[in-house]
Design goal:
mainly alpha; 4 helices
Length: about 80
């Protein structure tokens, strides 16, 4: 497996987990959860490989997303 494929897998796994967390926490649909994630600054940061967030846990990244949703920006 190439590095690019492994990185995409890590990012996709994080997004999947974060969507599940949003569905559980907010009682929204999976589609709405994914829409929130893909349109967030957090997602931009996760996909920016220089941040290293793609290598962090889903829970860690979800905390960043929750902060963004609460305060309107990534902390």
């Amino acid at each position: 497996m190439t590095d690019a494929i492994q990185t995409k897998f890590l990012i996709d796994s994080i997004v999947e987990d974060m969507a599940k967390y949003l569905v559980e926490d907010k009682g929204i649909s999976e589609i709405d959860a994914l829409d929130i994630i893909y349109n967030s600054q957090t997602y931009d940061k996760i996909t920016d490989l220089s941040t290293g967030l793609y290598f962090q846990s889903s829970g860690y990244n979800y905390d960043i997303l929750k902060h963004e949703l609460t305060y309107g920006k990534v902390g």
